[in-house]
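Annex B. Sample input.
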Amino acid sequence: MNDPEARRRELLRQTRKRYDDNRFIPAVHPRYGNIYHELYDDQEDTYPKDTFLFRLTLGILCFICYVWMDSSQAQIASVSSDQIVNQIEKQVEMEDIQEVWKNL
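Annex B, continued. Sample output.
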């Protein structure tokens, strides 16, 4: 091994050590700093990625509200539980959906 090759290997080793150990963040414009950190930083500590518990709680709350509306025959925002059931059972045609999206 000659001297220039040894020098290159040493520089490569130093470079790898510097960038691998520190998790080097490249120069990012301050405007895009938040986006970079959202994409590449470890986010497991900041918020949970699993939303199952939240969705389950929301579903149970909606079901409880529906059962309460049905048992007390209450009308909230001029909507009864029978109207909710009718809208859930309603078959929607694809043309109707496309028409609504075109009007937006």
